Amino acid sequence: MSGLNPFLTIDGVSKAFGGIQALYQVSFAVQARHIHALIGPNGAGKTTLFNVISGAFAPDEGSIRLDGKDIQGRPMHELVRRGIARTFQNVELFGSMSVLENVLVGCHTRTRCGLIGAMVRWPWVSREERWARERAMELLNMVGLADSAMKRAVDLPFGWQRLVEIARALAGDPKLLLLDEPAAGLNAVETERLSRLIQEIQALGVTVLLVEHDMNLTMDISDRIVVLDRGRKLAEGTPREIQSSDAVMEAYLGKKH
Amino acid sequence: MGSRQRLYGTAIFSLGMAALGVAVSNPYEQQLLTIIGIHTLLALGLNMLMGYAGQISLGHAAFFGLGAYGTGILTTHFQWSPWASLPAVLVFAALSGYLIGRPILRLSGYYLAMGTLGLGIIVHVLFREWDTFTGGASGLVGIPPLSVGRLIVGLGRSGFFAVWATVVLFFVLCGRVVDSRIGRALRALGDSQGAAAASGIHTAHLKAAIFSFSAVMAALAGYLYAHLLGFISPSSFDFLMSIRMVTMVVIGGMASIWGSLLGASVITLLPEWLHVFSDYEMMVYGLILMGVMIFLPQGLTRGVLDALQRARARTASS
After folding, report:
1. Closest CA to B159 of B219, B218, B214, B223
2. Which phi-psi region, left, alpha or beta, contains residue A91 (left: φ > 0; alpha: ψ -120 to 50)?
3. Per the CB < 8 Å rule, is A101 touching B183?
4. Chain A residue with minimal CA distance to B197?
5. Which of A197, A135, A209, A204 is nearest to A166 (CA)?
6. Mutate to test the interface with A, among B181, B182, B202 (most CBs of A within 10 A)
7. What is the rounded CA–CA span in Å between residue B92 and residue B216?
8. Sheet of A224-229: strands edge to edge?
9. Yes or no, beta carbons of B200 and A77 under 8 Å apart
10. For residue B210, which residues of chain A lie inside 8 Å, CB to CB?
11. With contacts defined as CB-CB under 8 Å, which chain A residues touch B194?
12. DSSP label at B28?
């Protein structure tokens, strides 16, 4: 672990909300192109950590480094430009838009037409728009939703909405993808497909940080796992090490008698 | 809506308006139609902010007045040519829109409504009290008309064509914005600000930019208004005007370019039609607005389109 280029470094990160210490001195490193999972009981601070990494709010203390550069406290839109994309636990699609348009919004950081450009419609604006549409369709193909491109995103079944969200996140060409419980609400077949999709994303060279309650999925695809409990890091290791750790079993199931 | 559909729609609409401009020769009707055009510009600009980006402004009459008083002051007190004051007024509206928009749009919901309400009131007081330049409550007179060579653009047919040509231009421009990367970002903002930011949209900048854009459209409407009427007074740019603008957008249909036209027409014409009720005019007006909102909460455009769709479905199934 004593790192060949850790891509993401979480160093002593704490975050409190009022009296509640959501994260306390959490540190770990994520290697480039790994699938790294974050597990722990409800309320362990997993989503808070995601929010801190993605720039939704700044940590109270500690630092976060992406590819060697400090990024803690930077605004979200800037972090997206630097290559961090995320999905949401409760799926946040744009309700008024089609599936394709949702993914096109994901291309925002890779295109540059502004208000004036849109009004004048220079030739490069039309070229850029065509490029974005092709790119969005490629991604919809990858997640298997090309046939639903023109449907309203929020009319799709829940499991498909998650895939739209992943396609939208990928549209910004992220280097680090944060997936917040991507398998929640999926059936066994959909979960199997999701697991293949995450591995495909990894093969594209994207580092994946995953919060997930589905232990089969997590143990199956993760290179490393960090266990959080009540805001602290409880354990870290390979799936095999985590499965045989007493501390982890206790946190999940209670003390052995 | 596809770009092609939009293009055809706009082409047919321009021909229709051109025909109307030639056909109507009654000065009263010409003026009424010209005012509808100015209101359409106002509603369209506000709709970009409210309908698409989901940000309310209860103070937009401030920018309408800024355009009118801006050009009024420059052309009367400083003897600028109206053509010179046009870019000055629009640039000033764009800058002030952005600079005011950046802090004020940090607010949302009711708080944003309160904030913009305050903005409208402050600017209105400025128009009324700064009488050295604005003429105070009695207004500013002697604003020169626009002229091209020997043609003077007045409230008659020439004014009609000047205003509606501007409206058509902005139908095209706004249509292009809506169908672009920026249009999608605006709707994303309106749907979910969190997901918009997570998609890399600089929400604070985008909100201020569209606020500025709608301020420019309102100022342009004010510019035309001032030069066509030759006289302006603070009461045309008060709180009630801001409310009327919001009403036009909501009644016509949020996030709809044609809805802005429909809303502006209805809100401008309704009081004219309701004169027959004399003392009860405003009551009937209020009742109609309430009725529309209760039965067509999405506004007239959506409501009518949905009704058509239902009718078509019925004929298809029977």
Report:
1. B223
2. left
3. no
4. A77
5. A197
6. B181
7. 9
8. A84-86, A176-180, A207-211, A35-39, A224-229, A232-237
9. yes
10. 115
11. 56, 88, 92
12. H
pLDDT at residue A88 is higher than 90? yes
Chain A window 90-149: which residues touch B at a Cβ cutoff of 8 Å? 92-97, 101, 104-109, 111, 113-115, 117-119, 121, 125, 128-129, 132
Interface test with B, best of A119, A154, A170, A179 (most B CBs within 10 A): A119
**CA dihedral sign, ordered B165, B41, B299, B274:** negative
pLDDT class of A257 with cuts at 50, 70, 90: low
Could you tell me which of A228, A113, A111, A100 has the C-alpha nearest to residue A167?
A100
Q: Would you place residue A1 in the very low, low, confident or very high pLDDT band (cuts 50, 70, 90)?
A: very low
Alpha carbons B273 and B267: distance in angstroms, whole number: 11
Judged by CB atoms closer than 8 Å, whether chains meet at A115 and B209 is answered as yes
* B222, B127 Cβ separation under 8 angstroms: no
Distance from CA of B116 to the nearest CA of A (A): 23
Q: What is the pLDDT of residues A157-201, one digit of tens each?
A: 999 999 999 999 999 999 999 999 999 989 999 999 999 999 999
Q: Which residues of B touch A107 (CB under 8 A)?
A: 181
CA B236, distance to chain mean position in Å, is 14
Q: Is the pLDDT of residue A213 over 70?
A: yes
Distance of residue B59 Cα from the nearest chain A Cα, in angstroms: 23
- A86 interaction partners in chain B (CB closer than 8 Å): 198
Please choose, from the candidates A62, A64, A66, A71, the residue with its C-alpha nearest in 3D space to the C-alpha of residue A24: A62
Check B194 against A128: CB less than 8 A apart. Answer: no
Q: Across-strand partners of A39?
A: A227
ipTM value: 0.93
Lookup: tokens for A257: 């008698």
pLDDT in tens, B251-269: 999 999 999 999 999 999 9
Which 3-state string (H, E, C) describes chain A? CCCCCEEEEEEEEEEEECCEEEEEEEEEEEECCCEEEEECCCCCCHHHHHHHHHCCCCCCEEEEEECCEECCCCCHHHHHHCCEEECCCCCCCCCCCEHHHHHHHHHHHHCCCCHHHHHHCCHHHHHHHHHHHHHHHHHHHHHCCHHHCCCEHHHCCHHHHHHHHHHHHHCCCCCEEEEECCCCCCCHHHHHHHHHHHHHHHHCCCEEEEECCCHHHHHHHCCEEEEEECCEEEEEECHHHHHCCHHHHHHHHCCCC
- B177–A119 C-beta distance less than 8 A: yes
- What whole-number distance in Å separates Cα of residue A235 and Cα of residue A228? 7
Torsion angle (degrees, nearest 10) of CA B102, B106, B110, B113? 0
Alpha carbons B293 and B309: distance in angstroms, whole number = 20
Question: Bridge-partner residues for A14, per DSSP?
Answer: A61
Q: CB–CB of B180 and A125 under 8 A?
A: yes
